[in-house]
Design goal:
The structure is a single chain. By secondary structure, the chain is an alpha/beta fold. It contains 10 helices and 6 strands; from the N terminus they run H-H-E-H-E-H-H-H-H-E-E-H-E-E-H-H. The chain has a 4-stranded mixed β-sheet with strand order 3-4-5-6, sandwiched between helices. Strands 1-2 form a two-stranded parallel sheet. Helix 8 links the parallel strand 4 and strand 5. Helix 2 packs across helix 6, helix 5 runs antiparallel to helix 6 and helix 8 packs across helix 9. About 5% of the residues have low confidence.
């Protein structure tokens, strides 16, 4: 791909985080021979509006040069400080103030390879699936003192993800998350699986991200444990049956924590002096 200084200026203005930059370059290289357009600015403009993506049965895409119009207008508004929108309506704004948006923002400033890989996987999600995951994360966080999780397959059909919320010590959380992901990966015969640990008492969108990336192969012992996990897994009410192919059940009742009682987070402080505001 050959480009000019003006495009690089435009590119880094709007793809200002490593995650967003990798996301565009990854897609542009992937579809380089399938996307036709008069200017690279139009391809970038289309991507920021629609998230550059081709279905398996689509051989090529012709992008109209006018796809760059909104991008140029936003760039002008930023640089010359004139009235008008400063960010194209699309992938940079679509998930604002949602749980999935907060997660992507946090991953954008994380330099760990696993976090970047996970961020790219999230950016490849369809809007429908991304919003479903966002609602499910809200469900995890709304019940602060119950250990809960949900797992689902990603759009590619070869990988999946588990979100887990609990209040154990960090090392114990990580070990439990990895063990759970290994069994989920085995049960679904996936080649890759992400695991995300969430602590509702922590303002950060996630605490730990793990990534298992190894071709699936039969394993008698793992298969037995995976089947037992699936058999013993009882679906949660906050996951709809249509979305996750599960039947709802009642959520366990949670006893109210008294103001002077020890805080459930395990800090040793009284609840009123620790997490009551959360």
């Amino acid at each position: 791909m050959v480009t000019d200084i003006f495009f690089l200026d435009l590119f880094f203005e709007f793809c200002s985080t490593p995650l967003q930059a990798f996301n565009y370059l990854d897609r542009r290289v992937k579809y380089f021979k399938q996307v036709f357009c008069d200017s690279e600015q139009a391809v970038l403009g289309f991507h920021l509006q629609k998230n550059l993506f081709l279905e398996k049965d689509e051989d090529f895409a012709a992008i109209d040069k006018h796809c760059a119009d909104e991008l140029d207008a936003c760039f002008t508004a930023r640089r010359l400080h004139v009235s008008g929108g400063q960010t194209p309506d699309g992938i940079l704004t679509r998930f604002n103030r949602t749980e999935i948006g907060k997660l992507i923002d946090a991953l954008s400033i994380d330099d760990e390879p696993t976090a970047i890989s996970f961020g790219l996987a999230l950016l490849y999600l369809s809007e429908e699936l991304a919003l479903k995951i966002s609602n499910l994360i809200s469900g995890l966080k709304s019940n602060l003192f119950i250990d809960r999780d949900f797992s689902l397959m990603l759009d590619d059909g070869h990988s999946g993800i588990t979100f887990h919320s609990n209040h154990h010590q960090e090392q114990k959380r990580r070990e439990g998350l990895i063990s759970h992901c290994i069994l989920r990966k085995q049960a679904t015969k996936c080649d890759a699986w992400y695991g995300v640990s969430i602590n509702p008492l922590n303002k950060r969108p996630f605490e730990t991200v793990v990534y298992l990336n190894e071709p699936w192969r039969p394993d008698h012992e793992l298969d037995k444990k995976a089947k037992r996990l699936i058999r013993n897994s009882k679906p949660r009410k906050y996951i709809s049956g249509d979305e996750m192919n599960r039947k709802p059940r009642d959520i366990p009742k949670v006893e109210k924590v008294g103001r002077n009682a020890p805080c459930p987070c395990g800090s040793g402080k009284k609840y009123k002096k620790c997490c009551i505001d959360n």
